[in-house]
Design a protein that fits this description.
By secondary structure, this protein is α/β, with parallel strands linked by helices. Helix content is 27%, strand content 28%. It contains seven helices and 15 strands. Helix 1 (15-26) packs parallel to helix 3, helix 1 (15-26) crosses helix 7 (343-362) and helix 2 crosses helix 7 (343-362). Its cofactor is FAD.
Length: 366
């Protein structure tokens, strides 16, 4: 079908909503992006800016679709980095950069992406982190999350995506909210809306409503200096893996954030925890674990120079990501939410699926 003059309204300006707007526009759709929060703002319900963030697939061995999403995103991000390297002087940097990465996990087998990433090597057993069974080094993609979101927004706008700031009700049913969204958009755009994309992230819990949405709370600490490499250890901090100590952290990561001389340290994965306040005890444990793995960041007192502590709520969904078409009264809606902590690495592949679904669905009406 010809997608020209087909207007799609994307609701939500996190990494999923922004990338989906870009992918739809590149496919020929007209796009309006409506959101309560945009890049540059901070809110606990606007989850994308709080991410670490780097490319490391969370897809299971049998989750072929999410593996494909992550593969498409990895290759796309590589192309952006290569363009910025070969064509310097762009006014807007993506915030993406290649970084050496080391990864340790309790799984005894190599990850599915071992043949995808650059410079993959298995870590000798003598060099494994405590409590882990497998380790690897490879070249990964580090993402300065606030910079990348701003880059996506400016890319979308340069392609002709119209942005509208508005808050939709979260205490009504979806059809009522879509009627309100249509009225708001009609004040800015003359065309009729062919479809909506629901990229509301964690707010989908009340917006849809979808009770399967649940936060996976992440506690991180920002410190001065850029670590020399990415380090991720997927293993509990306690010597006893069964420990339920409130100070134990289930994962440790050190993420050197490009272009700003800072590093993000983490972290936690607290399911169904909405608390926006950092815990001093957890901060202390994050700093303690990271010392061994990033001594280059320690000051003359042997401590990290802490800039901030923050909480992010990964927008997870019990039952997995939801990317599918739903008819809501007269509206065509393509849901795209529930990506949890994989939003950045899912973003391009997930957006391409939205394009395919809407292309197929809307072709039925021509």
């Amino acid at each position: 079908m010809s997608s020209e003059r087909r207007l799609v309204a994307v609701i939500g300006a996190g990494v999923i909503g922004l990338q989906t707007s870009i992918s739809l526009r590149q496919a020929g759709f007209e796009v309006v992006l409506l959101a309560k929060h945009f890049p540059g703002e901070q809110s606990i319900e606007y989850t994308s800016p709080w991410a670490g963030a780097h490319w490391r697939s969370h897809a299971g061995e049998d989750d072929l679709e999410q593996q494909q999403w992550d593969t498409e995103t990895y290759k796309h991000m590589l192309s952006i980095i290569e363009k910025e390297t070969n064509e310097p002087g762009e006014s807007v940097l993506s915030g993406l950069a290649l970084r050496h990465s080391r990864y340790f996990s309790t799984s005894a087998s190599a990850p599915w992406w071992s043949n995808l990433v650059r410079d993959y090597q298995t870590t000798p057993s003598s060099s494994l982190a405590p409590g882990t069974q497998h380790g690897t080094t490879y070249t990964s993609i580090m993402i300065n999350a606030p910079m990348y979101l701003s880059y996506l927004l400016q890319t979308a706008q340069s392609l002709g995506v119209q942005t509208i700031r508005a808050a939709l009700p979260s205490n009504s049913d979806l059809s009522e909210s879509l009627h309100i969204a249509r009225k708001i958009i009609s004040e800015h755009h003359n065309g009729g809306i062919s479809a909506f994309v629901n990229a509301t992230g964690i707010c989908a819990r009340t917006f849809v409503p979808d009770p399967a949405i649940n936060p996976v709370r992440g506690h991180t600490v920002t410190v001065i200096g850029e670590a020399k490499q990415i380090t991720t250890i997927e293993a509990p901090s306690s010597a006893d893996p069964s420990s339920n100590s409130s100070e134990s952290t289930p994962i440790m990561y050190i993420l050197p954030r490009p272009h700003c001389n800072t590093t993000i340290l983490g972290g936690t994965k607290d399911v169904d925890n909405w608390d926006p306040s950092p815990s001093p005890a957890t901060t202390a444990e994050i700093l303690r674990r990271a010392k061994e793995w990033a001594p280059e960041l320690l000051n003359s007192d042997g401590e990290f120079s802490v800039l901030s502590e923050q909480i992010g709520l990964r927008p997870a969904r019990k039952g997995g990501v939801r990317v599918e078409i739903e008819k809501v009264e007269e509206f065509v809606v393509c849901h795209s939410y529930g990506h949890a902590g994989a939003g950045y690495q899912n973003s391009v592949g997930s957006a391409e699926k939205v394009v395919r679904l809407l292309d197929e669905e809307l072709s039925r009406y021509t």
